[in-house]
């Protein structure tokens, strides 16, 4: 070999999307082995199961992506429909035993809903993961509150064991690294992530994951239409190799927000008009503010006089959060906040415990949203017996909560809690089983903001992905959407079911720097001026060093790498029948080459050789067969092209009419 | 700034008003507007696009909330579900479901790019009327299979080439009500033909040379059908008797376009009981019945300020489960409901019982001048539930409050 160039074979770049549930897959384990693959993306969708709970689909999100040898976990959700091990993702197919730290480069959580972050403490503290967990500031603030709430319901109320503890939630949150919108975060030298606004809930984000020139965008849950307190999802034309979108609502055409709000107002209005009380159990942040803004806006116009209350403590806490996270709300709220606090309402006052017994109509927002404890449950118990009253449940309730029971139409509730003895005055004296009759009107209203089929199309139009991957849907029901996406955008659309593998080929562009000297030299050789549309062959040496590719002249490469130049010569014998003397044959060759190779330096040297550039040609013959000439050609590695050409040319023989001069 | 707030005020006023005047209202936004809404089962409808090239046919499942009378409060499901979808390369101006099957029959107009350019600038509604094609045939009828549980894609299963489709107007269709699946179709009175779907065999054709353009076509019994010409003439035909066609000139005036709505009572075997309402582009409604189609039973001048010059979307329908009520749309962004009980034989102006203005109160672009309702249908059994669509792609499902019962 003439010289040594450090160059690894770059395998055909390919993107592989895998979706597996059971069998432990080795493909995810060989993190070190995959180092030679410049561009492999493995996607392992760990689960996408659904159950129907009071009309709302709740699944569990946990997606593993391997891109360019980096392994990333997207969301770590809990399945709200199971009470056993199945509620957590099955991490055993990342690793059979041991901790996850060595297999994962990072974990990203899209938003604070439990079906996206509920298994986080289990994953990090019980299975074991010490690497970074990325989430936005609002998610970081709200996520532990929800996890603690859920832990209380599961462990304290339902008495389950084998669940994470309060301390585990705290320890888990210590591993969280906050993300800002549109800020590129370098996880390590090669892996970078960037968060985009997703609407949906306060702090919800879509993430772009990038290694080299390849990228994946994961949407989490998103909403393409703004509401009263949040904006619409937005992403730039980042053209990811794969866009992973949730598709829970992919086959729906959503009823307008306006009609949902209208129904809410109508119910509140009707109840207040007939002198009843309205209880709205809410989580402190998000939907509560949205509904407060709605009531505040229309209360006077509807000629309503009844008081509206908001649980104490919550207002301050919520306002505090919204002040911190004002950038996450919509434009109108941001604008108003400059003048005054958007959540200082004219008609909505702080609630006091004693107000619940006041006569006459009223509307109360109280926490928690699932009626499992606290103020909302206390008020519910007081009001449940009166059919004039109403409870409006604006969100999902987990199993085992009073909220879940009444949404399933249960009319008699057993209260096993001792505290309730004092509170339930309506109970017959002497009754040992404390039960509460639900006479008030129960209304379930979903305000959840998800992208429907049109929203998914809008997002694809925005991001212009090269491939589309729909998760969380039922493939059988999405054939039409798949066809539609493939026709409209001429991209591939995948809907991996559990246990299914999808392979995607990509063509990443690999940028190479060319040294100026090399370019100048090429220019000096003449030929047409460089045209970006036409490929052109040029010679140089490729150096792969410090994560960059450079094309330089061989001399420079030798110098940089501190190597000596080796000479490499090729020699070749060509037999020729030519009934002349050796010097005559040489002359005839000289004449022949002169006529064929115009513009080349051809010399007939006195030492009995012909030189074409650096190629040496000698003639010899044996005494026995003087007419059989043996031509000896010798050229250096650099003149390989010309050398091969000459040998081929001379093998054809010399034309007959040549003079020997 | 002041203008915006007045617009916002009008919007909010309607929003507050809607609390009182509707029991339920749902507003959906399709990606592409439809001018057909067809029931395919008790709970599903079909809609389809009418743009010049790529169009979608969607079968939508109505939200559960609309069908639960008890415990409606516990049902939060209020979205349309796309249960089946398909693609069509032409504009769909007419779509009918064949009763008792999973088939729909669709009249497709192919529009050359030349026509598109010329007409789209004036009014998109015109586009549909022009059916010049490069490849030698005009409109055709296509049969599509809505599919079952195993797949959500609607597939085209057949094309009925219309040999006599000489006109440049869209074909009207009426599915047969009884027996083997068959379809009555035509673009002129003289074209009217009954074709068996499975074989494509013509079962009946009208032997008369009446070149009047057809605007509405409907069966009133197993064999008797009504055809309304664009000039307002009504024809009664019987597929058992090709030569017997009864003509009832309505005294239609020149330059006025007419369409028809028929109230059929399929439970009664006597087709003569059905009422026929004809709507003119001059906003008149003439009601007659089959016993004597020449003399109007009663008529009315509607007070409508037309927002479109096109007659394409004109539609009049009888309420199937509400006596004497009919709905009119296609002149502007409203759907008007009239109670014909008070109407008289003399032409007089009458006020509507209810007006649905929702399509003019669009969330995004508040533009009352451009909103035109493309079609509407009644719910077959819920008396005051209507579905309507408009040129902006909106589809509304609404159920208005009956003032008479609400007040007592």
UniProtKB/TrEMBL annotation, chain A:
Keywords: Cytoplasm, Hydrolase, Metal-binding, Nucleus, Zinc
GO process annotations (BP): snRNA processing
Metallo-beta-lactamase domain mapped to chain residues: 59-276
Highest rank taxon of the organism: Eukaryota
Compartment annotation: Cytoplasm; Nucleus
Beta-Casp domain: residues covered: 288-406
Molecular functions (GO terms): hydrolase activity; metal ion binding; RNA endonuclease activity
Family: Belongs to the metallo-beta-lactamase superfamily. RNA-metabolizing metallo-beta-lactamase-like family. INTS11 subfamily.
Protein name as catalogued: Integrator complex subunit 11
Record organism: Oncorhynchus kisutch
